[in-house]
Amino acid sequence: MSQPDPEAVVPTEHEPVVEVTEREVTLQRSVRVVRLLIAGIVVGAVVAMLACLFFPVAEGAEYTLGQVVGFMALIGAAIGAGVGGLVALLLGLAVRRQRGTGVAIQSDVR
Question: pLDDT above 90 covers what percent of the chain?
Fold first, then answer.
């Protein structure tokens, strides 16, 4: 058997030093633009497709109901994206006014 080395590093336990810093921060809300655009696209396409079902295709027409529904879905999606973007801009202006302040607590442990 070998003897333990007296110069070996023995880990000692130290009390952690915690530094707490409080800072005043400005809080600002934001609008999730992508979600509003996607919702506008989906709603616009669905409304346009449903609206096509109320108008019958004339007998002997050069297009089918499926073609009309697809074309109107594209147009409805474009209009829905525009409306969704407009709603996002208006909501962005409304929430910009609602700024607040808060206290952030930062803890550093050493």
Answer: 38
Q: Domain spans of the chain?
A: 29-101
In contact, 10 and 52? CB cutoff 8 Å: no
How far apart are alpha carbons 67 and 79 in whole angstroms? 19
Residue 91 CA to residue 76 CA, distance in Å, equals 22
pTM strictly above 0.70: no
Q: Which residue has the tokens 């396409």?
A: 45
* Cβ-Cβ contacts under 8 Å for 47 (sequence gap 6 or more): 76, 80
Buried b (16+ CB within 10 A) or exposed e, 21-44: eeeeeeeeeebeeeebbebbbebb
